[in-house]
Amino acid sequence: MEWVTIVDPPPSTTFYAEYQNTGPGSTVDQRIKWADYRSSIPEADAGKFTVKDEQQGGWIRMYPLPGADMRRFVIGSARNLLHRSHQNSLFQRPLLSSSYRLLSSSPSADPSSSSSSTMAHPVALNNINPKVLECEYAVRGEIVTLAQKLQEEIKAKPESHPFEEILYCNIGNPQSLGQQPITFFREVLALCDHPAILDKSETQGLFSADSIERAWQILDQIPGRATGAYSHSQGVKGLRDAIAAGIEARDGFPADPNDIFLTDGASPAVHMMMQLLIRSEKDGILCPIPQYPLYSASIALHGGSLVPYYLDEATGWGLEVSELKKQLETARSKGITVRALVVINPGNPTGQLLAEENQKAIVEFCKQEGLVLLADEVYQENVYVPEKKFHSFKKVSRSMGYGEKDISLVSFQSVSKGYYGECGKRGGYMEVTGFGADVREQIYKVASVNLCSNISGQILASLVMSPPKVGDESYESYSAERDGILSSLARRAKTLEDAFNKLEGVKCNKAEGAMYLFPRIELPEKAIKAAEAAKKAPDAYYCQRLLTATGIVFVPGSGFGQVPGTWHFRCTILPQEEKIPSVVSRLTDFHKSFMDEFRGLV
Amino acid sequence: MEWVTIVDPPPSTTFYAEYQNTGPGSTVDQRIKWADYRSSIPEADAGKFTVKDEQQGGWIRMYPLPGADMRRFVIGSARNLLHRSHQNSLFQRPLLSSSYRLLSSSPSADPSSSSSSTMAHPVALNNINPKVLECEYAVRGEIVTLAQKLQEEIKAKPESHPFEEILYCNIGNPQSLGQQPITFFREVLALCDHPAILDKSETQGLFSADSIERAWQILDQIPGRATGAYSHSQGVKGLRDAIAAGIEARDGFPADPNDIFLTDGASPAVHMMMQLLIRSEKDGILCPIPQYPLYSASIALHGGSLVPYYLDEATGWGLEVSELKKQLETARSKGITVRALVVINPGNPTGQLLAEENQKAIVEFCKQEGLVLLADEVYQENVYVPEKKFHSFKKVSRSMGYGEKDISLVSFQSVSKGYYGECGKRGGYMEVTGFGADVREQIYKVASVNLCSNISGQILASLVMSPPKVGDESYESYSAERDGILSSLARRAKTLEDAFNKLEGVKCNKAEGAMYLFPRIELPEKAIKAAEAAKKAPDAYYCQRLLTATGIVFVPGSGFGQVPGTWHFRCTILPQEEKIPSVVSRLTDFHKSFMDEFRGLV
């Protein structure tokens, strides 16, 4: 018997409770009116909105009547009133991580953290923007906070834990784990940062000839060679020319530098599009489940509704257009205007690579349904299976004969991923096609408010789209560095995939691309009970136990969304190759002892 | 007789029309109910909301009854329904620039720009986020678009205009106008970008010894020396340590590195705070008028209300606490919850520097009224008057004995300004003090969604707060570069100020700091009529004529806000010193011929 309590609901509001009965793949909705629930509540709980969840493996969403002022009671701000008086790990928020926050709480609930601030400061949790409260970002969430704490403890007292270092497999941050930057790229960046050395003789000895030449070329494209000046709001025109040329070379279809908006990594570009498209919680964005939590966070911050579509784990995280259609119809029947479809290809956290035919069907679907296609293509260089190839959605749609007038398409790219992994440089772009000039003007205006993205990031974005070519002095070393990184990533992915599949109760799909594995884990009933006792979702509990035992940081599947009742975690393939055997053995030992601990009946 | 028309108002809504009668300084509000207006409208205009403005020199705002769904009819999204069927320059939106946009327009109104896109694309002006439409950003607005067009024309055909180049005085972008970066800073950045050269012997010949030493120090503070890795969401801890030490040295009061959030320039930090504080249009932010339009843009994007307070031009743009109190009360009487006070010191666009006593009164006001003090201190190094000194609001509040518990204070700093002017590097930080741990956690979470700011910008932010010291090898050259830039800026400010004050009908306050002058211009009645005929605000008309005649880009005062009925423009003091005489003579000649053209009676 599990309880979910909302403290102090607005008195005059009528609620629905929405149940979802789940086995994997099934999504049977059941709506039960609050008033019907209310009658079953003990008098002691009067004044609270208390819902009894007796459906094992299901989940609950609660919201007032559509049209009411607080329509998105749970999905929106008021979800923060939620209080799990008795913790229930089976009460699973499908897209969000496992910590609940309390706005107006009973006195017993954690008085230390908020009450003092509420008294002393004009800004408190109960008067900040509820969209901020709503937003969650699991890959830097609770588990990472714990990891940072452990790291500090190890630093202070090296013997304090049974491991020597924290291994951050929570985030696609290759260079933090030892991946070296591509020399040519860094040479050019350094020269553009300090052009005064370009014509010094010593520079010849330190830098490759083509990096010097490239730096001159780039500087000549920047008005006044001023790498310290704000650029055009979309980025330096000459750098956008180089990127457009790179896209053309990749796709075999023309690209227009005026369609390119350079951004500080891909994240601000995603925010910009969400900001443009979302007017209210009645606007929905179709997002894959599991998804990269930037999307759920950005949609929450902009006050829209995430419309989930499920990737099919059984077919290697397949993306079925029939599922898209079903979820689109469901959303529409609830009064949601679906504005856009997010596709992450190669997938994050799933690593799957879409087949070209599949992509065509997706393009057709967006065209037919009038949806903007938001194509997250930041892992376009990260493909590890020789039989498959990355195709950009722009190439696919153009190859279908669809142009500017037919499909609104935004492609996101970043310097943080690929073989370059330059996360700290915050470079990236979006290519915006199929929008009217008037709407483009609005995107430009929003870009202008932040003036421009950082110039080093802009330069790097142009470099990754126009790396050294055969015959350039740096080509050989460049391609050796690139191939070394990519082939090592492929080996690491395979080794980890195999290791996961050897673990009891764990099943891991093939990593075709990106930087992650997202294995599914069947947890013993006793472990689930232990998680409940620890007030954790079972996958979060597993990840926390793994971290405290081994120093390895995985992110629980609940941070990305998963079919309710299933449990996963995301693990990057980024630990350096020499560390992989130790990761595998630490993981294997931990898993065995964890399963042994919870084996048997409850 | 002037007309303002709203096409297709929601039929069942009751409007107020709010008039403001203005002479400079006077703010008499008059509210007239829509129904009373309605009776005076000719039958041909039925179905429109038409307001006749017969009050010369005044301005109008219109909105439905408070509490109605579309309460912010004009201030908010529906303002975009506004159609000025007969252009009236005296109808002045106090905070916004001069272009109106039309959502659902009569067929005659500019069918080319929007109709084709509306048909072909799912995203059109009438279905994007109205907050995006609402937002305006004048310093990269219409006048800059025109300047870019002229620049392209000159490039294509050098003799096409009576000037050889466009002189961008619209934006504080020093290096775009030839200012050179500080050598030491760039040396360190280059070395951190390409650490592989740090221990090469040639490097000793190219870089100063202390830049090499500093680069090592910085790299040692970055885990794995990985400048290509995402950092902590608030920025690299060691760099925050350096910044905190710099703040301590500046203020004489302690600073905590955990209070520092490194950001891509100051703009994202401002957005972050607006995002945190603004829940709806009922939340207001007190902003100076004139203001830097980042604030109006950010408030619009986050759906809040800008509560204006006027700086007193007559007393050198004085900031009177009595004016703050008056505007706070007015806003509260309208049901606005005022959350924060924005103070820009030194002022943008006004250039004034606040006296310490004045700052104390402001701190006291915020404390008493429970307002967050948002202190834009990005021009802290830009002070040109020896008798005045910059004091940070943190120092002032600490010197009053106010600590964490007493005042919520956010200070913004940027690498784009000061003597460094590194706009393209997008570095900056905010120091967040006086917030509870729970709210701080929320700020951290929002910072995490974008992972981190760019590392070069982070490094640079630490460098500007800890530049070379006496005894360091680079100190002499560093301080010579710094002093050269600052003293030249002071001379340029004075020369331009004097030049403006010599122009007929122009009055310019002393530039005490920052990078701008904001002179007031009295325009002849005939020029105002000509502006009306050209469908421009008079100051926008003047700036456009100046641009097409001389190539000099100023921003009209209407982009920053000004006392209704007064006209200004903002001009940066950044053209290189050798160009200043030519700027002055081109401006003087233009102004004389402009005034001659419009001299005499209408």
From TrEMBL, chains A, B:
Pectinesterase catalytic domain: residues covered: 3-53
Domain Aminotransferase class I/classII large: 224-586
Cofactor(s) recorded in Swiss-Prot or TrEMBL: pyridoxal 5'-phosphate
Positions of transmembrane segments: none
Keyword annotations from UniProtKB, A to Z: Aminotransferase, Hydrolase, Pyridoxal phosphate, Transferase
Pathway(s) of this molecule: Photosynthesis; C4 acid pathway
Record PANTHER family: ALANINE AMINOTRANSFERASE, ALANINE TRANSAMINASE
Similarity comment: family membership: Belongs to the class-I pyridoxal-phosphate-dependent aminotransferase family. Alanine aminotransferase subfamily.
Quaternary structure annotation from Swiss-Prot or TrEMBL: Homodimer.
Designated name of the protein: Alanine aminotransferase
